[in-house]
Design a protein that fits this description.
Largest sheet: 6 strands, mixed
Order of helices and strands: EHHEHEEHEEH
Strand order of the largest sheet: 2-1-3-6-4-5
Mean pLDDT: 92
Helix content: 25-40%
Shape: globular
Distance between the termini: 28 Å
Low-confidence stretches: 1-11
Length: 255
Protein backbone atom coordinates (compact mmCIF):
# COMPACT_ATOMS: atom_id res chain seq x y z
CA UNK A 1 0.00 0.00 0.00
CA UNK A 2 1.25 3.47 -0.85
CA UNK A 3 2.41 5.53 2.11
CA UNK A 4 0.12 8.52 2.74
CA UNK A 5 1.68 11.66 1.27
CA UNK A 6 0.84 13.67 4.37
CA UNK A 7 0.29 11.24 7.24
CA UNK A 8 -1.64 12.52 10.23
CA UNK A 9 -1.88 10.82 13.58
CA UNK A 10 -5.37 10.41 15.09
CA UNK A 11 -4.58 13.04 17.69
CA UNK A 12 -3.57 15.77 15.26
CA UNK A 13 -6.34 18.40 15.27
CA UNK A 14 -6.52 20.07 11.85
CA UNK A 15 -7.18 23.80 11.71
CA UNK A 16 -10.56 25.02 10.56
CA UNK A 17 -11.35 24.32 6.93
CA UNK A 18 -11.49 27.09 4.31
CA UNK A 19 -14.90 26.88 2.64
CA UNK A 20 -13.36 26.31 -0.77
CA UNK A 21 -11.43 23.31 0.61
CA UNK A 22 -14.75 21.56 1.28
CA UNK A 23 -16.66 19.52 -1.30
CA UNK A 24 -20.31 18.69 -0.67
CA UNK A 25 -21.01 15.39 -2.41
CA UNK A 26 -24.75 15.01 -3.07
CA UNK A 27 -25.35 11.70 -4.88
CA UNK A 28 -29.00 10.78 -4.29
CA UNK A 29 -31.07 13.97 -4.40
CA UNK A 30 -32.23 13.77 -8.02
CA UNK A 31 -35.54 12.28 -9.16
CA UNK A 32 -34.71 12.61 -12.87
CA UNK A 33 -35.39 9.52 -15.00
CA UNK A 34 -34.11 10.08 -18.56
CA UNK A 35 -36.58 9.15 -21.29
CA UNK A 36 -34.22 6.58 -22.81
CA UNK A 37 -33.95 4.58 -19.58
CA UNK A 38 -36.65 1.93 -19.41
CA UNK A 39 -38.15 0.20 -16.38
CA UNK A 40 -40.53 -2.74 -15.95
CA UNK A 41 -42.67 -1.04 -13.30
CA UNK A 42 -45.91 0.78 -13.99
CA UNK A 43 -46.07 4.50 -13.37
CA UNK A 44 -47.45 4.24 -9.83
CA UNK A 45 -44.97 1.60 -8.70
CA UNK A 46 -42.08 3.47 -10.30
CA UNK A 47 -43.10 6.72 -8.61
CA UNK A 48 -43.19 4.89 -5.26
CA UNK A 49 -39.70 3.51 -5.80
CA UNK A 50 -38.28 6.88 -6.79
CA UNK A 51 -39.83 8.42 -3.67
CA UNK A 52 -38.55 5.65 -1.41
CA UNK A 53 -34.97 5.73 -2.72
CA UNK A 54 -34.41 9.48 -3.13
CA UNK A 55 -32.54 11.49 -0.51
CA UNK A 56 -35.13 14.22 -0.77
CA UNK A 57 -34.03 17.85 -0.44
CA UNK A 58 -30.43 17.03 0.45
CA UNK A 59 -29.42 19.46 -2.31
CA UNK A 60 -31.24 22.15 -0.30
CA UNK A 61 -30.32 21.05 3.23
CA UNK A 62 -26.56 20.85 2.68
CA UNK A 63 -25.04 24.22 1.88
CA UNK A 64 -21.86 26.06 2.80
CA UNK A 65 -21.23 29.44 1.15
CA UNK A 66 -18.07 29.11 -0.92
CA UNK A 67 -17.90 25.32 -0.82
CA UNK A 68 -17.91 23.24 -3.99
CA UNK A 69 -20.81 20.92 -4.78
CA UNK A 70 -20.74 17.68 -6.73
CA UNK A 71 -24.37 16.73 -7.43
CA UNK A 72 -25.33 13.59 -9.33
CA UNK A 73 -27.76 14.68 -12.08
CA UNK A 74 -30.10 11.68 -12.30
CA UNK A 75 -31.93 9.33 -9.96
CA UNK A 76 -29.99 6.54 -8.31
CA UNK A 77 -32.47 4.17 -10.00
CA UNK A 78 -30.59 4.95 -13.21
CA UNK A 79 -27.08 4.51 -11.77
CA UNK A 80 -25.95 4.64 -8.15
CA UNK A 81 -22.71 6.64 -7.93
CA UNK A 82 -22.06 5.44 -4.38
CA UNK A 83 -21.59 1.82 -5.41
CA UNK A 84 -18.45 0.15 -6.68
CA UNK A 85 -18.57 -1.12 -10.25
CA UNK A 86 -18.56 -4.62 -8.76
CA UNK A 87 -20.44 -4.15 -5.51
CA UNK A 88 -21.64 -6.54 -2.81
CA UNK A 89 -25.16 -5.13 -3.27
CA UNK A 90 -25.29 -6.90 -6.65
CA UNK A 91 -26.52 -9.87 -4.63
CA UNK A 92 -29.86 -8.14 -4.09
CA UNK A 93 -29.96 -6.44 -7.48
CA UNK A 94 -28.95 -3.05 -6.09
CA UNK A 95 -25.36 -2.65 -7.24
CA UNK A 96 -24.12 0.18 -9.40
CA UNK A 97 -27.00 -0.36 -11.85
CA UNK A 98 -30.13 -1.55 -10.07
CA UNK A 99 -32.06 -4.50 -11.46
CA UNK A 100 -34.39 -4.85 -8.47
CA UNK A 101 -36.36 -2.53 -6.23
CA UNK A 102 -36.03 -1.94 -2.50
CA UNK A 103 -38.79 -4.56 -2.08
CA UNK A 104 -37.01 -7.13 -4.23
CA UNK A 105 -39.23 -6.72 -7.29
CA UNK A 106 -37.76 -6.78 -10.78
CA UNK A 107 -36.94 -3.21 -11.82
CA UNK A 108 -35.50 -3.80 -15.29
CA UNK A 109 -33.65 -6.23 -17.49
CA UNK A 110 -30.29 -5.18 -18.87
CA UNK A 111 -27.70 -6.70 -21.11
CA UNK A 112 -24.05 -6.29 -20.12
CA UNK A 113 -23.71 -3.79 -22.99
CA UNK A 114 -26.62 -1.69 -21.70
CA UNK A 115 -25.24 -1.80 -18.17
CA UNK A 116 -21.83 -0.62 -19.35
CA UNK A 117 -23.41 2.16 -21.41
CA UNK A 118 -25.13 3.57 -18.30
CA UNK A 119 -21.91 3.35 -16.30
CA UNK A 120 -20.00 5.16 -19.04
CA UNK A 121 -22.71 7.80 -19.44
CA UNK A 122 -23.33 8.65 -15.80
CA UNK A 123 -21.03 6.93 -13.31
CA UNK A 124 -17.60 7.61 -14.75
CA UNK A 125 -18.19 11.33 -15.56
CA UNK A 126 -19.47 11.94 -12.03
CA UNK A 127 -16.46 10.34 -10.40
CA UNK A 128 -14.10 12.08 -12.79
CA UNK A 129 -15.67 15.38 -11.73
CA UNK A 130 -15.33 14.57 -8.02
CA UNK A 131 -11.72 13.45 -8.46
CA UNK A 132 -10.88 16.62 -10.38
CA UNK A 133 -12.45 18.74 -7.65
CA UNK A 134 -10.43 16.97 -4.98
CA UNK A 135 -7.23 17.33 -7.00
CA UNK A 136 -7.79 21.06 -7.48
CA UNK A 137 -8.49 21.55 -3.77
CA UNK A 138 -5.34 19.64 -2.84
CA UNK A 139 -3.28 21.75 -5.25
CA UNK A 140 -4.60 24.90 -3.58
CA UNK A 141 -4.86 23.93 0.10
CA UNK A 142 -2.88 20.68 0.44
CA UNK A 143 -5.95 19.17 2.12
CA UNK A 144 -9.55 18.48 1.19
CA UNK A 145 -12.71 17.64 3.10
CA UNK A 146 -15.51 15.72 1.38
CA UNK A 147 -18.86 15.79 3.15
CA UNK A 148 -21.01 12.95 1.81
CA UNK A 149 -24.59 14.27 2.06
CA UNK A 150 -27.47 11.82 2.54
CA UNK A 151 -30.80 11.11 4.18
CA UNK A 152 -32.57 7.89 5.11
CA UNK A 153 -36.25 6.92 5.50
CA UNK A 154 -37.82 7.12 8.93
CA UNK A 155 -38.97 3.51 8.53
CA UNK A 156 -36.44 0.96 7.24
CA UNK A 157 -36.87 -0.29 3.68
CA UNK A 158 -37.03 -4.04 3.04
CA UNK A 159 -33.47 -4.32 1.69
CA UNK A 160 -31.85 -2.61 4.69
CA UNK A 161 -30.03 -4.88 7.12
CA UNK A 162 -29.64 -2.26 9.88
CA UNK A 163 -33.05 -1.28 11.27
CA UNK A 164 -31.81 1.34 13.76
CA UNK A 165 -33.21 4.83 13.25
CA UNK A 166 -31.35 7.65 15.03
CA UNK A 167 -31.95 11.27 14.08
CA UNK A 168 -28.49 11.55 12.56
CA UNK A 169 -26.07 8.95 11.23
CA UNK A 170 -22.41 9.93 10.91
CA UNK A 171 -20.45 7.69 8.55
CA UNK A 172 -16.70 7.48 8.94
CA UNK A 173 -13.68 5.82 7.37
CA UNK A 174 -10.81 4.59 9.54
CA UNK A 175 -8.23 6.01 7.15
CA UNK A 176 -9.95 9.19 5.93
CA UNK A 177 -11.86 10.47 8.99
CA UNK A 178 -9.87 11.88 11.88
CA UNK A 179 -11.36 10.86 15.25
CA UNK A 180 -11.36 14.53 16.27
CA UNK A 181 -13.53 15.33 13.25
CA UNK A 182 -15.99 12.57 14.16
CA UNK A 183 -16.16 13.56 17.82
CA UNK A 184 -16.74 17.24 17.08
CA UNK A 185 -19.48 16.51 14.54
CA UNK A 186 -21.33 14.19 16.92
CA UNK A 187 -21.00 16.68 19.76
CA UNK A 188 -22.40 19.53 17.67
CA UNK A 189 -25.46 17.55 16.59
CA UNK A 190 -26.08 16.26 20.11
CA UNK A 191 -25.92 19.80 21.49
CA UNK A 192 -28.76 20.63 19.09
CA UNK A 193 -30.82 17.86 20.69
CA UNK A 194 -30.42 15.11 18.09
CA UNK A 195 -29.70 11.44 18.69
CA UNK A 196 -26.57 10.46 16.76
CA UNK A 197 -25.15 7.09 15.75
CA UNK A 198 -21.79 6.29 14.18
CA UNK A 199 -21.94 4.10 11.05
CA UNK A 200 -25.52 3.02 11.74
CA UNK A 201 -27.77 2.43 9.90
CA UNK A 202 -25.27 3.22 7.11
CA UNK A 203 -21.51 3.26 7.25
CA UNK A 204 -18.47 4.73 5.58
CA UNK A 205 -17.95 7.86 3.52
CA UNK A 206 -17.05 8.32 -0.12
CA UNK A 207 -13.46 9.01 -1.20
CA UNK A 208 -12.31 9.16 -4.84
CA UNK A 209 -10.50 5.94 -5.71
CA UNK A 210 -7.37 7.83 -6.75
CA UNK A 211 -6.95 8.80 -3.09
CA UNK A 212 -8.72 6.00 -1.25
CA UNK A 213 -6.47 4.42 1.40
CA UNK A 214 -3.54 6.33 -0.12
CA UNK A 215 -3.70 9.99 0.85
CA UNK A 216 -4.93 11.20 4.23
CA UNK A 217 -4.93 14.78 3.05
CA UNK A 218 -8.34 13.81 1.66
CA UNK A 219 -10.66 13.66 4.64
CA UNK A 220 -14.25 12.43 4.33
CA UNK A 221 -17.28 12.16 6.56
CA UNK A 222 -20.86 11.17 5.76
CA UNK A 223 -23.89 12.88 7.27
CA UNK A 224 -27.21 11.04 7.00
CA UNK A 225 -30.39 12.82 8.10
CA UNK A 226 -33.49 10.94 9.19
CA UNK A 227 -36.25 12.06 6.79
CA UNK A 228 -38.68 12.14 9.67
CA UNK A 229 -36.86 15.29 10.80
CA UNK A 230 -38.14 17.19 7.76
CA UNK A 231 -41.45 15.59 6.89
CA UNK A 232 -43.22 18.96 6.61
CA UNK A 233 -42.18 22.27 4.99
CA UNK A 234 -41.86 23.89 8.42
CA UNK A 235 -39.63 21.10 9.71
CA UNK A 236 -37.56 21.30 6.52
CA UNK A 237 -36.95 25.03 7.03
CA UNK A 238 -35.91 24.54 10.66
CA UNK A 239 -33.62 21.63 9.86
CA UNK A 240 -31.96 23.54 7.03
CA UNK A 241 -30.95 26.29 9.46
CA UNK A 242 -29.56 23.79 11.95
CA UNK A 243 -27.66 21.73 9.39
CA UNK A 244 -26.12 24.86 7.91
CA UNK A 245 -24.94 25.86 11.39
CA UNK A 246 -23.26 22.47 11.79
CA UNK A 247 -21.63 22.71 8.37
CA UNK A 248 -20.41 26.26 8.77
CA UNK A 249 -18.74 25.19 12.02
CA UNK A 250 -16.26 23.31 9.85
CA UNK A 251 -15.01 26.67 8.60
CA UNK A 252 -14.89 28.37 12.00
CA UNK A 253 -13.22 26.06 14.49
CA UNK A 254 -10.51 23.48 14.82
CA UNK A 255 -11.52 19.87 15.25
Amino acid sequence: MQTPSNPMSPGDPPPCWPADAIILHIPHASTVLPNDVEFLLGNEALAYEVDAMTDHSTDLLFHIPGAQRCVFPVSRLVVDPERYIEDAMEEVGMGVVYTHTSEGRSLRQLSSTQRQHLIDQYYHPHHQQLTAMARDVLNTHDRCLIIDCHSFPAEPLDYETDQYRPDICVGTDAFHTLPSLEVSLVKTFEELGYSVAINSPFEGSLVPLDYYQKDQRVQSVMIELNRGLYSTPDKLSKLKVRVQKVLIDFTKKSF
